[in-house]
Amino acid sequence: MPELTDADRIARAEAWIAQDPDPETREELAAIVARVREGDAAASADLADRFDARLAFGTAGLRGEIAAGPNRMNRVLVSQGAAGLAAHLIERATDAAAPSVVVGYDGRRNSEAFARDVAEVMAGAGVRAILLPRLMPTPVLAFAVRHLDTSAGVMITASHNPPNDNGMKVYLGGADQGSQIVAPADAEIAAQIDRIAASTTVPELPRGAFETADESVVDAYVAATAAVASAPAAQPRVVYTAMHGVGWETMRRVIEAAGFDAPSLVAEQIEPDGRFPTVSFPNPEEPGAMDLSFAAARAARADLVIANDPDADRLAVAIPDASDPEGYRRLTGNEVGLLLGWQVAEQVAAAGGEAGATDAASARGTLACSIVSSPGLEAVARAHGLDFRATLTGFKWISRAPELRFGFEEALGYLVNPETVRDKDGISAAIAFLSLAARLAAEGRTIADHLDDFAMRFGCFDSTQVSIRVTDLSRIAEVMARLRAEPPVEVGGIRVERIDDLAAGVDGYPPSDVLRLVLEGDARVMVRPSGTEPKLKVYIDAAASEGTLAERRAAASDAVGRLEAGMRALVA
């Protein structure tokens, strides 16, 4: 394909402006075109970045920076995406009834406008479209797909991405049970989007009237989520932050319905604000993101800090820690996932599992986590006679584990109520964790005590992550290619026993750009590009199951430290 010239790009930009319904992005692009005509080299590079590629639709849907052009998030791209999804649903419909979609949106910039575009375009294409009544957490949308028995769901969100990002996340109903899309549906939808973008302008897409869901959908989610909790045996002192997102309104109702006292709030972050003014990056995992939460916790002498990310599908937890300068330590996603998984396993054991199946473990259910999450969950499952599945990263895979009882991934995602929500849910996970903290408090014990108990019963599983953010995505491909061409024989002085390249479809997984290094002494390193951010991610795990608690912790920590230093040198 011949390389585009400035003249080619200007022609494409003018055609884009002619179909763009958003005056802000029209003016933005017109100004760039004017500067290109004046010979501005920076404007030429900007126009090339916007028009030499198209924001790809994949298993995460669409996600990117809000701006004009096909390689950005905007109303043109969203309208084309909606029309492509509608065409896919209509083509695959198996009965006379029109396919249906429920659409939700969070508090980010342009979320409501994008959601209305999706609903109107899909309704115009012949799909029954239902818009949630106001901005909502992503888990409410995931719940609504199953509750309303729709063919699909669309959530307008970019989760914890930078403030100027937004996205379009797609779920499928029916046989997919409200899970996120996976192959081949992603490629089929992408093909429909490309066809429509090449043949039809946005003004030519018919628009229709959509329905607005009533409050009964939200009421049903609140009731189902509150049922995750048992009656509080005690009332821990809790601080909560919504991280400028949409979690608090729904979380407040669930906390109240579950019988917990209202938490102290991080007032500066409790209302939705798409500018995210008090954090440099609205992700509880990022350094500094929970500083205000820790200050509020010190003032309240809190036993627990609970944070949702902006669309409330993730949960962060922090506990008192006198050794930390802040006085509190954020638990890793693996620590929270292992404790929640242990709680679910105990609940299944107490209930006696399900009778009548030939395989006892399958009958009682499955614990699942992503391949980059802690191996400790398998130890929990094995100890309780449950099945275990490790899946590719993302809840689109975790949610599809058979007979799922609980699933998690280390990136603060937890699925504790698979009968109602087939996606990570930071609200239901928070209620489940509050129940655990309340039970322990009634026994005079803490979450820290429980983590010690876990290490002694199942082994000490330590982990860390090396995350390298890049501005040039080719750097990630270069590192992955180098590791494949020159595989290490040791990392940090620990011998590599084998390397599994998941690009070849190892262990029945679909081909994926992931390298798994299995090292001596129950250690493991996973390397992969991020699916949602410009990052290379390295996941490091080590375990120790011999000796005292202190000896186990020291052995696992030492191995993780050596592996981290070794991997930083390898991927530099």
UniProtKB/TrEMBL annotation:
Pfam families for this protein: PGM_PMM_I, PGM_PMM_II, PGM_PMM_III, PGM_PMM_IV
Domain Alpha-D-phosphohexomutase alpha/beta/alpha: 55-197, 220-318, 363-453
Record's protein name: Phospho-sugar mutase
Cofactor names: Mg(2+)
Residues covered by the Alpha-D-phosphohexomutase C-terminal domain: 495-555
Family: Belongs to the phosphohexose mutase family.
Keyword terms of this UniProt record: Isomerase, Magnesium, Metal-binding, Phosphoprotein
InterPro entries noted in UniProt: A-D-PHexomutase_a/b/a-I, A-D-PHexomutase_a/b/a-I/II/III, A-D-PHexomutase_a/b/a-II, A-D-PHexomutase_a/b/a-III, A-D-PHexomutase_C, A-D-PHexomutase_C_sf, A-D-PHexomutase_CS, Alpha-D-phosphohexomutase_SF
GO biological process: carbohydrate metabolic process; purine ribonucleoside salvage
Single GO MF descriptor: phosphopentomutase activity
This protein's record includes keyword Isomerase: yes
Record PROSITE patterns: PGM_PMM
